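Bench notes, afternoon.
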Amino acid sequence: MKSILLIVIAVLAGALSGATPASSLAPMLDLAGAGQDPTKINYSRLPVLKGEHALVTQGPYNQRGMEAVVFDLADVNDPSKWNFRLHSYLAHFEGKYWMMWSHGRQVEDHPTQHLRYATSDDGIKWSAPRIIAGPPIRDGFRYISRGLWVRDGKLLALASYDEAYSEEGRVRFFGKSLQLHAWEWQPGARDWKPLGPIAKGAINNFPPAKMPNGDWGMICRGPGYDRDVFMLSGGIESPASWRRSPIVTELPADGFRPEEPDWWTLPDGRLLGLFRDNSRSGRFYRAVSADNGRSWSAPTKTNFPDATSKFFCLRTSRGFYAMVSNPNPQSRNPLGISTSSDGVTFTHMGRLPIPVAPGGGAFDAAHTSGSVQYPHVIEHDGHLLICYSRHKTGIEVIKVSLDEVERLHTGRL
């Protein structure tokens, strides 16, 4: 009797808050051949999309491990002296492609980590890396790249700012001083103007995107890490005007540990939030909001496989959704692309044409290209441009036509 009462209370609470239970959604994975069973996916036999590849920036890499490079801070203008490159993001602005990333001395997210960017006319040939913000002046602090935000005709670069080490001297996520900072591109000066903090106690995972009601939105985490996940919505009056709505405030009983979230708008106007699970269940979790992010259902486990890595999904101009992720729970390779007609159930999966070596060459049919992870995707001029990091020491891009992605989506690859 008590359990029935608790269920009734939960259902009523969800109805009053406007949150639709994520458990009521159709399965997230339903592939031809594998069906709804992720263990039946043969990653070596996934269709491979055709596309162009380019290396944007590469640091030194030691095959025995990603070791710290000995350097002096006076070498900040020489990017080759820094080996860590991760958290890359794309935007199209002023007729160019833009990319930013975290640039550090060692893997990963140690003090002095800072922000760099590059530009490209075509997404394939990139400029030399330049600095958005150098190493923080405050001892022990770091910047972590958080995305490029095109807002009201201006380009903003976002990054978190916090202390990198715990009291025991180990890298931690996140420090008590956590803030989200912004820099605005100045076309005349060809430089970045610091705007300071735009949100306190928050680190986003991707730059804000527009919600159905016209507000900007981004799912963030706070200093409480996986016990502090929330939606920031607003951003209309200024880049610093946000309303905070909780999603996860304590760890669920099933052991789920939410990490690196993304969200997108479904055709019916609801928001779907997706979460990496740091408890290494090898599956995504998802939640739903029916009121533009003000309230959310409890995240529930899906049948979509994941290597405990970052991912990104967008709705293309042709109506279908495309998600880039590491779908093999055993490895951050391959980097796959999956498509969905409704943003809920993904029915086709393929592999991106990543070469064996960062400099290009033969396609990596045997998954020997190592660790390829942390993608971001934009659509422009009939193509998807996808950036990612290899070994956390280099940033690369893949350019794929929408025609090619649609061939995957319609089962013609």
